[in-house]
């Protein structure tokens, strides 16, 4: 009788393991694994010397906190290049919430300015409402605009950077930031 119990427990363990491996093969499983393991990783302040630079986002003289997400970066390493890939498996609203970004309150009619510290190849700005992307446009570096609605706004940025003559690196990065307009 004891052997049957051991075999039954072993069978249940194998079923759970097989289900777990199947879940990891799906995107939901990868996201679940990311959230579970994020408790063991310090990702709140990534090393700013690795990967694409953070943009400076200002609203009426107030600096807006920006989170870095997925990156694809090529950087010099001795006499050769090294590739750095980091995938966050997140949409911009998920990234903003995960990084626990502060939400500055700005007055209606206040202009927002987005500026990267180095030349960019392309910058795309996206706006999200209720978890859905509602607008996406290509913008120049140093772009300013005035949000047209009151409430909380979640923005995403995707920027690509050309190879730098100073050999800093090249690639692309994804960012998120939030504001509240009153």
Structural commentary:
This protein is of the alpha+beta class and 182 residues long. It folds into 2 domains: 2-38; 48-181, no CATH class. Helix content is 23%, strand content 40%. Strands 3, 4, 5, 7, 8, 10 and 11 form a 7-stranded mixed β-sheet that branches. Strand 10 and strand 11 form a beta hairpin. Helix 1 packs across helix 2 (27-37). The longest helix has 24 residues, at 2-25. The chain is flat and about 75 Å long.
- Written as H for each helix and E for each strand, in order along the chain, the element string is HHEEEEHEEEEEEE
Number of domain modules: 2
Radius of gyration, in angstroms, nearest whole number: 21 Å
Please work out how many helical segments DSSP would assign. Answer: 3
Let me know the number of strands.
11
* Anisotropy-based shape: flat
Distance between the termini: 70 Å
Strand content: 35-45%
Instruction: Give the helix level as a range of percent.
Output: 10-25%
Q: Tell me about the biggest sheet? A: 7 strands, mixed
């Amino acid at each position: 009788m004891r052997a049957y119990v051991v075999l039954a427990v072993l069978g249940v363990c194998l079923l759970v393991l097989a289900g777990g491996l199947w879940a990891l093969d799906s995107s939901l499983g990868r996201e679940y694994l990311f959230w579970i393991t994020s408790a063991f990783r310090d990702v709140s302040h990534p090393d700013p010397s690795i990967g694409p630079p953070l943009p400076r986002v200002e609203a009426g003289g107030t600096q807006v906190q920006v989170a870095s997400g997925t990156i694809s970066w090529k950087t010099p390493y001795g006499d050769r290049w090294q590739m750095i890939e980091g995938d966050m498996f997140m949409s911009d609203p998920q990234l903003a919430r995960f990084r626990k970004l502060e939400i500055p309150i700005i007055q209606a009619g206040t202009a927002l300015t987005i500026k990267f510290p180095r030349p960019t190849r392309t910058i795309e700005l996206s706006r999200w409402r209720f978890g859905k992307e509602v607008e996406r446009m290509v913008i120049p570096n140093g772009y300013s605009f005035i949000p047209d609605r009151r409430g909380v706004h979640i923005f995403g940025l995707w920027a690509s950077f050309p190879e730098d003559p100073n050999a800093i690196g090249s690639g692309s990065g994804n960012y998120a930031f939030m504001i509240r307009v009153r």
